[in-house]
Write a structure and sequence with these properties.
6-stranded mixed β-sheet; 490 residues; alpha/beta; 16 helices; binds nicotinamide-adenine-dinucleotide; 7-stranded mixed β-sheet
């Protein structure tokens, strides 16, 4: 099949060979890659088998212990990571096109956000290999004729399993620190969006990474499960739904695998009475509608102090109506479709149930293009805390709003959730913002700014939003095992 629609500029699909080290593995089955803007299949993706998983994990295990990787000087590893970053930077237009084609997000967004963000992460972690030293220490309970020190050993073969909303960014959140730490990695992208992963692997080979250090495998959840439960995989770095994260946690028990689980969210946005609304309204809209709401820490529950409630609702609804919905190849598009027919059906059913229960939309809602899996951005008002749309992750451009009277009530409403990933706050009261930051049960709080994940800061969730942290210096605890060495000197 592998054909591109005429409205796309000519760009080649990446090499999709499944590799175990340098060995190309034969593939007999393929699945279709669907363009969410048209519903049309445009590429055939290798459907891996458990035999492929076994061969690739063995190759990753061999590469882990091969001197070409294991004994590589840290400075050389830094140069390799930077060389890879240079190639990605030169390849930005093609990578962005692959990402936009796969996910349906506007090409301009993939160019301005996805590829540059992945690069920021890679460049940040490229500087780390020379700084990942252990330490020497005096022993607390012994005389000083012992020399004691720690080493930081790579945890081993890593399975990186990612979702479809930011395929390249979320892959790089795992690849960059894992490779900086000296691990080897097998990346399993979501079946909806595998192309950028193959292109990243192609560029890594060009950069000079030894065979088997980084490979890509494609398939559905069964392949993710086979990879995550393989005994030679020592660590699973997963981003996806809470339900899948729970299965991975369960499967990790026999081997006591190391895990980071970045899961779902239902993040609150709190707008206080003294906030600058000229800023808070468009930012709160963006916190929810960006990437068509397919953002794990999207601000999807809006709490507004009562005196400003009507003004904020009208402002955000008006913002929602002005968003230009359109296909990824059209540079005037601001919001693309949802990822798949299945996801669109799930979101639509949830909204139909909310409306049947009498929850009202701040209307009117704009109409959507005829083809593609579009969902118009919308805001529901006066939503009870018990409503399904207030409790469950929708993963679409849907905001649920509720007024509050004082800060204690806002905090109680915001914390009344099974999730705890992020929170947004708009306030000009310094002590109020610190109070909110302290008392919100979430992994990240953004005050008077929006969706500001950064490689310098740990990112992850409390409660059902996850386990462990990605990013920041803290991420290396997930990819390095401390080892203590004690030498008796006499
Ligand atoms: P998903 O859990 O269905 O799939 C994620 C990945 O896991 C895919 O590659 C899938 O093939 C694989 N998978 C499925 N079953 C598996 C199993 N049993 N074992 C191993 N792997 C398996 O999630 P999705 O629908 O692709 O993505 C949407 C979800 O991701 C949302 O819940 C969203 O909140 C979450 N997400 C979280 C973050 C974060 O950083 N916390 C970021 C982005 C998305």
């Amino acid at each position: 099949m592998n054909s591109l629609k005429p409205h796309w500029p000519a760009f080649a699909l990446p090499d999709m060979t499944l590799l175990a080290g340098t060995t190309a593995l034969p593939v007999s089955d393929y699945f279709a890659d669907i363009d969410p803007c048209t519903g049309q299949a445009f590429a055939d993706i290798p459907a891996a088998t458990t035999e492929h998983v076994n061969r690739m994990v063995e190759a990753a295990h061999t590469a882990l212990h091969h001197p070409d990787w294991r004994a590589m000087a840290p400075l050389h590893r830094e140069k390799l990571l930077h060389r890879w970053a240079d190639l990605i930077e030169q390849d930005l237009p093609r990578l962005a096109a692959l990402e936009a084609r796969d996910t349906g997000k506007p090409l301009s967004l993939a160019e301005a956000v996805d590829v540059p963000t992945a690069l920021n992460w890679l460049r940040t972690y490229a500087g780390w290999p020379t700084k990942l030293a252990g330490k020497s220490t005096a022993l607390a309970g012994c005389p000083d004729h012992f020399h004691a020190y720690t080493r930081r050993e790579p945890v081993g073969v890593v399975a990186a399993i990612t979702p479809w909303n930011f395929p390249m960014v979320l892959a790089m959140w795992k690849l960059a620190p894992a490779l900086a730490a000296g691990c080897t990695v097998i990346l399993k992208p979501a079946p909806e969006s595998p192309l950028s992963a193959f292109r990243l692997a192609e560029l890594a080979r060009q950069a000079g990474f030894p065979p088997g250090v980084f490979a890509v495998i494609t398939g559905a959840g069964d392949i993710g499960a086979a990879l995550a439960s393989h005994p030679r995989v020592r660590k699973v770095a997963f981003t996806g739904s809470t339900a899948t994260g729970q299965k991975i946690l369960q499967a990790s028990i026999p081997d006591l695998k190391r895990l980071t689980l970045e899961l779902g969210g239902k993040s609150p946005s709190i707008i206080c009475a003294d906030a600058n609304l000229e800023r808070a309204i468009p930012e709160a809209a963006m916190a929810c509608f960006f990437n068509s709401g397919q953002v794990c820490y999207a601000g999807t529950r809006l709490y507004v102090q009562r005196s400003r409630y009507e003004q904020v609702l009208e402002g955000i609804a008006s913002h929602a109506r002005q968003q230009r919905l359109g296909p990824s190849w059209d540079r005037s598009s601001q919001l693309g479709p949802l990822i798949s027919a299945q996801h669109h059906a799930k979101v639509s059913a949830m909204l139909a149930r909310a409306e049947a229960a009498g929850i009202s939309v701040v209307g009117p809602v704009q109409t959507v293009p005829d083809t593609g899996y579009y969902c118009a951005p919308r805001i529901y008002r006066d939503v009870p805390a018990t409503a399904e749309i207030a409790r469950e992750e929708i993963f679409g451009p849907v905001l649920v709003a509720t007024p509050f009277d004082d800060i204690d009530e806002a905090i109680a409403l915001a914390n009344d959730s099974d999730f705890g990933l992020g929170a947004h706050v708009w306030s000009n009261n310094l002590s109020e913002t610190h109070e909110l930051a302290r008392r919100l049960d979430v992994g990240s709080v953004f005050v008077n700014c929006v969706l500001m994940a950064d490689p310098a800061l740990p990112f992850g969730g409390m409660k059902r939003s996850g386990l462990g942290r990605e990013n920041g210096a803290e991420v290396f605890a997930a990819y390095l095992e401390p080892k203590s060495v004690v030498i008796g000197l006499r």
